[in-house]
Each structure stands twice: as structure tokens, then as C-alpha cells.
């Protein structure tokens, strides 16, 4: 019996021993996929299969990024986009999480607000950009409001969903122990909703960045969106792809950072 147990344990051990190598393999496969895609893109763009006016090879996109950096245009335009994106994102995060928490904890208020939230959330906010220009001018304020309008409802609905999914046993236990309402809110309800807010942050920042870029395409005189508009005006496809590439890179980096934050929050809850 002891031999059988020993052999059984030895068979099960490798499944856990190579868990880290499995994640490393996935990362390697991702890298290989990206490299193959870029090589294929380079070949298609240079082979003449596609009109060069419509598709620039990655090498020329990198050259455009280098040219923007040499001219001192890369960092200022990135910062301009980040300024509008983060300002609208943070305001939307604060307002959405606060109102979502209050609405979610009050069933009657939640029931009253639900149809209005649905109607406002279904409104295409990008289409409201011209109105934001009329109301807030052509400066950064209109772009911040556009980003805010995209972020706030994502955070709001996610926070409401988080409050609705609070473990009822925890609430009952807190009440049985004569916990005050303030303690229930800050020590039971809020810790349960935080992961939902973090998840909303990861989703909504992509919308925030997209909103900032789109706003710059229509409203701005600087930023990555403005570079896209400038590139399309002179048929500079490599400049367009350079601005798009920088946007994707920023979104990826911020998403990874938020992922690390989410892991720390979940570890703290555990």
C-alpha cells in the first residue's frame, strides 16, 4: 500500500511543478504569434499585394515613431492624450463608483434609477461630441467630458451589480453582532464591491483612451487622435499606424498595471 501511495504522489507532482513553465510557454507562444504576424504584415505590405497608400509595413511605422520622437512631437502628443484620458477616467471612476454604491445599497432607489441608467447608457456618447464642443468649447474640457461620459456608466453599472452580489450571510452576521450601519458599509459592503470596481476600471480605461483619441480627431489640435487626422489628411498611412500603435501600447501597459493592482486587492481580501 505504501508503494502505491508513493507512486501515486510521484505521478501527481509534475502537474504542479510545471505550472510556472506553462505560463512561460504561453507568453512565448504569444510572442511568437506577434512576431509572425508582424513579419506577415511586412511581407504583405512590401510584396505589392496591397496598395502602399492603404497599408504601411511595420518597419515604416517604426520609422515614423522615430521621426516623431526626433522632432519632439511624440511625447507631447502622448501626454496630451493621457491628460484627457486620465482626467475623464478618474472623474468617471469617482462619480460612477460613489453613485453606484449609494444606488446599489438602496433597493428602492435602484429600482427607480434603473430605467434612466439604461436609457443614458444606450445613448451613443461619441455622437454627442459636437454638442460637447458647443457646451464646453474646443479645448480639453470637451474631450474630458466625452471620456467621462464613456467611463461613468461602465463603473456605475458594475458597482451597482457588485452591491447586489454582496454575501447576504455577511450582512446578517454583522447585524447579529450589533454592527453599526457605518461599520457594515465600510467593513462588509465596500470590501465586497472593490473587486467589481477594479474590474470596471480595466474595462473602462480602454473606452477612456478611445474616447480621448476620437475626441482629438474631431476637437483637438494635439494628441494621438490629432496625429491620426493629420496623417489621413496627407495620406501618410505610416503616421496613422504609428499613432494607433502607440494607443494600443498605452492601453496594454495600463491594463497590465491594473491587473497587478487587482491581484493585490484580491490577495488583501483573501
What does this structure look like?
By secondary structure, this protein is mainly alpha-helical. It has two domains: 2-47; 58-269, MetI-like fold (Orthogonal Bundle), CATH 1.10.3720.10. It is 85% helix and 0% strand. It has helices at 2-17, 19-47, 58-70, 74-105, 107-121, 129-136, 140-164, 168-176, 181-219, 224-233, 237-269. α7 runs antiparallel to α9 (181-219). The chain is globular, with a radius of gyration of 24 Å. The two termini are 38 Å apart. Residues 5-18 have low confidence and may be disordered.
Low-confidence stretches: 5-18
Per CATH, which architecture of the largest domain?
Orthogonal Bundle
The count of domains is 2
Overall mean confidence score, pLDDT:
82
- Report how far apart the termini are: 38 Å
SSE order: HHHHHHHHHHH
The CATH C-level class name of the largest domain: Mainly Alpha
Structural class: mainly alpha
Instruction: Examine the coordinates and then state which fold CATH places here, giving the name of the CATH topology of the largest domain.
Output: MetI-like fold
| Helix content percent band | over 70%
How many helices? Answer: 11
Number of strands: 0
Please give a handful of descriptors for the protein shown.
single chain, 270 residues, mainly alpha, MetI-like fold, 2 domains, 11 helices, 85% helix, globular
